[in-house]
Structures are given as structure tokens and as C-alpha cells.
Specification:
One of its GO terms (biological process) is regulation of canonical NF-kappaB signal transduction. One of its GO terms (molecular function) is tumor necrosis factor receptor binding. Helix content is 39%, strand content 19%. By secondary structure, it is of the alpha+beta class. It has a 3-stranded mixed β-sheet with strand order 2-1-3, with no helix packed on it. Strands 5-4-9 form a 3-stranded antiparallel β-sheet. A 3-stranded antiparallel β-sheet has the order 6-7-8. Strand 4 and strand 5 form a beta hairpin. Helix 5 (160-176) runs antiparallel to helix 6. The chain is elongated and about 95 Å long. The chain starts with 6 loop residues before the first strand and ends with a helix.
């Protein structure tokens, strides 16, 4: 499980496609550049008198008129006591991040701009959903996955031996069962056979 202390989202990042996406950083981001509440990395940081840092949105939500309370320790503050500073984009761009596909096995590490280029043009660990089973499968392995699924389906095809075995069970019941038990047994066997045939037809159609 990834270290959530190193998972952040950018806000107001100049590179298109980066903002609001959960991103895992190689090293811990300095607390001075992170909102202590939502863990966003904004370009404008507000510092409260208690020294907790907030993005502008979290600061506004915590304020009431000329003051408010820190959402992290409930310490009261006055707006006049708060500081604010700009966290340059070049600092954010210099931080190394993991590829967004790291959970699927990608080991790329690099600056955000390089990672985005890698993710869109080079990464081979993108996943897609298998239309047969609904699983998330690596795109590069989808063909092999489909072949394995079809082989598994073929091995489950209802055969004449299956039907014959079911009939033999019914014959055995017929010899020493009363009619009510026999009807229940026949109905149960028929339901199973019908369900197997329907599943087989569904797999063949897909």
C-alpha cells in the first residue's frame, strides 16, 4: 500500500492534465508547500498563527468574517495574523513523482512534466476492462487474457457425458424413490442442465 503521506494532488499547476489527479511523490513534499488539510499542492499557501498551512480554499472554508479556527487543531485565528506566500511552479515541477501506473507495475520516476510525457506516449502499463469477465487487465496482455478466457469457456462446454451422467442419477432415484421425491429431483437436474446450457450459449455469443 502506498505511503499516503506522499500522495498529493496539484492545484493551479500550469501543465494541462495534472491538476486534481492523485500523484505519488518519490520523496516527501515539504510541508510548507502542502495544505495540511486536503493535502493539495497549491501555488498559494496560507500560514495560520499555529503554523499550520492551508490552501486558499480550505482557509476560506475555515474563516468566519475577520477570523476563524484552524481545522487541524481548532486554534482560533484572526485574519490579520495569517501569512500568505506563493509556492513557485518551478519548485513543484522539480519534485520527482511516480508514474500514475505505478500500482500496475510501472517503475518510472521523474519530474511531473517528464512523467506526463512518459504516461501518455511511452508507458506500457495502462489497463483496460475485459468485456468478458470485467477484470482490469494490462492492455499489452489483453489478447493473451482473452485467449485464456476462451480456453476456460471451452473447457466448461456441456458434453453428452454430462447429460448421460445426469440421466443415470435419475434412473437410480427412480428405482427407490417415491413420486414426489422423483419430481423434485428431476426438476433440480433439469434446472442445472438448462442453466449450464444458457451459460454456454452466452459465452459463445460474446
Amino acid at each position: 500500500m502506498p505511503d499516503l503521506r506522499r500522495v498529493h494532488r496539484f492545484r493551479d499547476h500550469p501543465i494541462e492534465g495534472v491538476n486534481w489527479r492523485p500523484t505519488r511523490f518519490v520523496d516527501e513534499v515539504p510541508s510548507s508547500g502542502v495544505c495540511g488539510l486536503c493535502r493539495m499542492i497549491p501555488n498559494q499557501i496560507v500560514v495560520l498563527p499555529c503554523l499550520h498551512t492551508l490552501c486558499q480554499a480550505c482557509h476560506a472554508a475555515s474563516s468566519q468574517g475577520a477570523g476563524g479556527r484552524c481545522p487541524l487543531d481548532q486554534e482560533p485565528f484572526e485574519e490579520a495574523e495569517c501569512g500568505s506566500y506563493h509556492w513557485p511552479s518551478r519548485k513543484a515541477n522539480a519534485l520527482k513523482v511516480h508514474c500514475w501506473n505505478d500500482a500496475h507495475g510501472c517503475e518510472f520516476e521523474g519530474a511531473m512534466e517528464l512523467m506526463l510525457r512518459h504516461y501518455e506516449n511511452e508507458c506500457t502499463f495502462h489497463t483496460v476492462e475485459c468485456l468478458q469477465c470485467g477484470e482490469e487487465v494490462l492492455h499489452k496482455e489483453l489478447s493473451r487474457h482473452y485467449a485464456a478466457e476462451n480456453a476456460s469457456s471451452d473447457s466448461q462446454v456441456l458434453t453428452l457425458q454430462d447429460v448421460t451422467a445426469a440421466l443415470e442419477e435419475l434412473k437410480a432415484l427412480l428405482r427407490d424413490a417415491n413420486h414426489e421425491q422423483l419430481l423434485l429431483a428431476i426438476q433440480s437436474q433439469m434446472n442445472e442442465l438448462i442453466e449450464q446450457i444458457r451459460n454456454q450459449e452466452h459465452r459463445s455469443a460474446s
